[in-house]
Amino acid sequence: MVKISVLQHAPSRHLPARPGDPTPTSRNLDPLMHPFARSRERMRALNAAKMERMFAKPFIAALEGHVDAVETMTRKPETLNVVASGSWDGGLIVHDVSQRSQLLHVEQAHKGKITGICFADADRMLSCGVDRNVKLWDTRSQPDTAELEAGSSSGRKPLSVYSGKTAFNSIDHHRSEPLFATASSLVQIWDETKSAAISNLTFPTSTETISAVRFNLSESSVLASIGSDRTFTLYDIRTGKAERRIVMQMRSNSLAWSPTFPTSVLLASEDHNLYTFDIRSLNTPTQIYKAHVAAVMACDWSPTGTEFVSGGWDRTVRIWKEGVGTAPEVYHTKRMQRVTSTLYTADARFVLSGSDDGNVRVWKARASDKLGVITARERAAIEYRDTLKDKWKMDAQIGKVSRSRHIPKPVHKAAQLKRTMLEAQRVKEERRRKHTRAGESKPRAERKKVVIAEQS
Amino acid sequence: MDALIAKADAIRPVKRRRIGRDDHPRKSNAPAKASSSHDQTLTSVSLHTSLPKSLRPSSPPPEDVPKYSHIHNKKLRTQLTRESAQTARAKALLKDAELLLTDEVGMMEVEGEMEKTWRIGQDEVAKAAGEEAARGRKEWTLDGGPYRSRYTRNGRHLAIVGKKGHVATFDWQTGTMHAELQLRETCRDITFLHDHSHFAVAQQKYAFIYDRDGVELHRLKAHIEPTRMEFLPFHWLLATVGNSGYLKYQDTSTGQLVVEHRTKLGACNTMAQNVHNAVIHLGHQNGTVTLWTPNLPHPAVRLLAHLGPVVSVSVDPSAGGRYMATAGQDGTVKVWDCRNWKGAVRQWTARGGGGDLEWSQKGALAVATGGSVNVYTKPSIQTPFAATVAPPLYLTHPIPHRPLTSVRFCPYQDILTIGHSAGLSSILVPGSGEPNFDSMEADPFENRTARREREVKSLLDKIQPDMITLDPEFVGSLAPPPKLSTAVEGAHDIPFARLPRHERLRVSGKADETEEGDARAASGGEEGAPQTKEEKEKRKMRGKNKSLKRYLRKQRKNVVDPRAVAVRAKLEKQREERRKAKAIASGAEADRKPSALDRFKRAS
After folding, report:
1. Among partner residues A27, A32, A40, which is closest to B463 by beta-carbon distance?
2. Which candidate, A168, A166, A148, A141, places its Cα nearest to that of A86?
3. What was the ipTM of the complex prediction?
4. Burial class of B240 by CB neighbour count within 10 A (0 to 12, 13 to 18, 19+)
5. Closest partner CB to A28 (pick from B14, B438, B497)
6. CB–CB of B5 and A263 under 8 A?
7. What is the pTM of this model?
8. Would you call the peptide bond into A158 cis, given omega within 30 degrees of 0 as the criterion?
9. Which residue ranges does the record annotate as region Disordered (chain A) (predicted)?
10. By the CB < 8 Å criterion, does B8 face chain A?
11. Could you tell me how many CB contacts below 8 A there are between chain A and chain B?
12. Structural domain of B26
């Protein structure tokens, strides 16, 4: 008795049932059926990393209109495409980023530079300048001026003007109530309906100039300021007092509250670093972000609170991940000068930078993103490539491809020099510790050196 | 201030929350659930999102996941734990996926001791096989000398070549002829390239590449008098070996001749590839088998396999390339274990002289000997057996047209095609083919779109030729620890930039490490015994060749300098001579007279 069976494939199972149907596929996950699986996956990961760098074209557009440096930018709440910018020449522009057009252009909004702008609500905007005035603007296009000239509506008058005693450095509006705060030599709280400040907030014994003030986004009565005395101060408008302040090694240039973690705040410092602080423990920063090679001038959180953008005196824009203190994404162009303001758009897809050359530049937040419609198949491929890159990032070649960035020569040289100097400092400190009494105690952690004093 | 923030029920940063969860998984879960119950956003979102089953908390965590408690960095530990859990889950799911393999492997079984499977003839097998499978039993009667054949990787297309120059490629299932050429010169081998759209023929003088319709595309003038060809599909390399004994690799995607190796073993008629590591096996006239990779100028392995010329080599694809079979002109067939080469696993004498042989996907070994083809199956041919007797025969088929020049199994089919002087005949070998194919790798039923897509994808995934090694799993595995230790005061992880200068030189191989020992040996004399004070005083600065030593001392920069090395070698030689003279004088060593046989002594 013999049993014989010979392998045969049923064509009905492997061929499409009707013409036009997709051909059925079959899988066999036996590793012997997939020779060189690892090597091929590595090649795929390498190609993915190379493709990412090939398609990394982050620059989208430059929005012109200002004559001098763009000092401040703000996005209109509840919109994705409307952004306002103020410049040192006193010009105020409301941009439509998606159309790359100007919705409003006030040429001489202030005498001297505009130092701060913010939206009061959907169609009113506040601006402050060194001419000691705060002005409230209506941003809706007015029919009479619209027919005169669409772009430049220089003849527009503010809805109201609030005048102060000293030049204003910054302005921010309360989240829900018709209040706003200004920064000059002290922090002042204003009511939109009253022409004088309703309260003055200042830290006792403080004689500094306040350079920026921001309301907390969720705990809306808390506000923070940074000042020329290298301080960071917290106020509460319910108590009407400065609650606490820290004095740091170097002064901060910009301040941003995290949109998702109300207790964390980001400071852009003069010492080339950025710091995130948890305001519940102000004695050490939660993270130090080191990559800029000159003072950081501006910073802004992405709406998700997982990333933020910073712009510096070194003419670069950098995009950081929250909690990752090194190797940020770097953007630069030949013509972009010192970056004085940065902004994330509300959909976290784009980044705006305003610089010394008077342009507002639009960048992609992820350099190799594809703009436009992405099909499900393409999306799956992109996700697969991302996973591969992540899985193989420890491979020397792949890691090198995905890490390396082209940096302008001056920035590169400055980074080299900085590294050398820091290394020399470190070596000197090490030797000092080795040969003197200083070596008997533990060295101070880098984080502990940032804050000099905490006062309350 | 803190009270105000606490009252506002502020969300805490992610990092803090994670730490809490790690520390007390039970405790923190309960309040989290309680708080999530009134979180409206979460409830509305959770309706529309679903985790895969394997990731839900209800699915049991996989067992035997390694613990990483020795790692201090919490972020790294969490990531490693997550990754290994994911891997363990994937492994468990892989077992489930075997249920989806529906096609069954063919087989031939007999009852009772006295019945033998080899007694079953092809007529009986063909009668028992299904209608579709029985079509695999074919006879092609062709003139034009002994034939050789080759299947595509998906087993759908067959290329045949006759010694006198008859070349044909066709889809053997539907019988569609792609190309038929009469080349009118000696043709020695044929192979398909990445798929059936191109094939290469080893002709009288050069190797040629033709497209599917038989149009000559390339004449590979670098490949002179090729005898055997192999195509490495994942590297896109065409490897040929010829009468001149050169092994040449040509990249068929870029057209470059990647590398040529001189085997120094004369004309070569035997070649096989290991599909799992793309190593080329060559069998030579003097009985050696050599294993070649493009990145080594010499064979990776050299093995004396037979006492006469090697006739055929084949590597087992069913066991991950672990076993190699060779047949020699001396009439023996040997099976080797590719992990250690200490003698054959099994060997036997084939009646009628060794001939061509090949392993099938499922591990059946076909040996063409004399006037018949014998097929042996797996467990018996791979188990070590000292006696030189043939393993139990599985199937045999007599073919009266000697010589039998090639045996080829058809992938994903139970078919064996034998080339002989009167054409080709294909027979059914139940259980030799892999029943379940993978459409991502090779699909016999793929249509034109799929074929094109696969061509582009495989070009993108092309592996570089210098990645071919004996162990293909080295990619993505941990690098071996460096041999040079950079430990300074017990700390091993000091970065290069922070090492002391001498350590840095040592790591980069530039340090001059001979001198301290040298100086000590020079001052301490031949025997390393401690000296008395007087002796030291006596010998102080009175050594011979003081000037040379001073030179060395002054040149000492901790850097290897060729002149310093030469001087040191000279010093060493002088010292050795002195030692010898001293030993001879004291009678410890006999003075050897130079002999005529000294020229054969190895220079030490």
Report:
1. A40
2. A168
3. 0.83
4. buried
5. B438
6. yes
7. 0.82
8. no
9. 1-32, 422-456
10. yes
11. 185
12. 2-31+53-98
